[in-house]
Amino acid sequence: MTNNLKATKRETKTKGQLNTLRSKGFIPAVLYGGESPNLKLSINEKFVNDVLRSENFLSTVIDLDIDGKKEKVIPRDVTYHVTSEKPTHIDFMRIIQGSKIILEIPVKFKNNDQCSGLKKGGVLNIVRRKIELQCEAGNIPEDIEVDLAGLDIGTSIRISSVALPKDAKLTITDRDFVVATIAAPTIVKEPEKAAEETAAEGEEAAAAEGTETPTPGNEGDATKKEDKGKEAPGDKKQPADKKTPEKK
User: Fold this and answer.
1) CA separation (Å) from 92 to 8, 38, 108, 229?
2) Does residue 92 have a pLDDT over 60?
3) Residue where a domain terminates, one of 143, 159, 183
4) Tell me: the pLDDT tens digits for 28-46?
5) Are 111 and 77 in contact (CB under 8 A)?
6) What whole-number distance in Å separates Cα of residue 42 and Cα of residue 30?
7) Which terminus of the chain, N or C, has less C-beta within 10 A?
């Protein structure tokens, strides 16, 4: 992908002049590389903000229009303000045809909907979001595609199984590193409450309502106490029959 940017030459020499430039909405920049001399530039911040937000900004070829003269360049570094996080300086490098350049290229995953592991609820764990490649300066890839089609849970995607862009080479060659894995879903089960905890919760709830919790085996004791000494209707004691004295 190629973007277009306009830049103008600047003659600033002091820190105060650079701060004045930034306060007017411009970002100081430097262009270097090749046999041409380094150039001090300034770029309107509003023209570069959209490009800066892209994930692959540092691997994007840019047609830089410098006072009407165009050069193909690539960003090599961006400095940001520590608090405002606004860009305060950009380094650009000229692209020389036939030369090699080392860049970090973003990794993109495709065919997620055809991944068996993800359909089963698995999780894609991305180990490397960018991979460093040596590329031709005139043929820089936008990204590295990783195909997830047909992969199941437990699969480790190593760099040896990834198709690299044409004319690109890995800078890490001493190991077959992992790019991503498809892990099993993590399910957190709530532990079952012990019988003692359940009983304690019942007692707390009863205390909150102002009632007593019956003790197993002693049910009805309170009722017995209340009924003790009370006579049921119709159970009044009859006076004992008086015996008739025997005649002598």
Assistant:
1) 14, 10, 25, 104
2) yes
3) 183
4) 999 998 888 999 999 998 8
5) no
6) 8
7) C
Print the domain residue range for 137: 101-183
In eight-state DSSP terms, residue 22 is: H
Number of domains in the chain: 2
Please give the model's pTM, rounded to 2 decimal places.
0.63
Residues 89 and 127 in one domain: no
Closest CA to 154 of 176, 194, 127, 122: 122
3-state helix, strand, coil in the chain (%, to 5): 20, 35, 45
Domain membership of residue 106 (yes or no) is: yes
Find out whether 172 and 149 touch, Cβ atoms under 8 Å: no
Task: Tell me the C-alpha distance between 91 and 132, whole Å.
Answer: 19
CA separation for the pair 210, 34 (Å, rounded)? 88
Beta strands at 130-136 and 100-110: parallel, antiparallel or unpaired: antiparallel
Is the predicted pLDDT of residue 148 greater than 90, yes or no? yes
| DSSP three-state, residue 141 | coil
- DSSP-derived secondary structure letter, 247: P
Count of other CB atoms within 10 angstroms of residue 31: 22
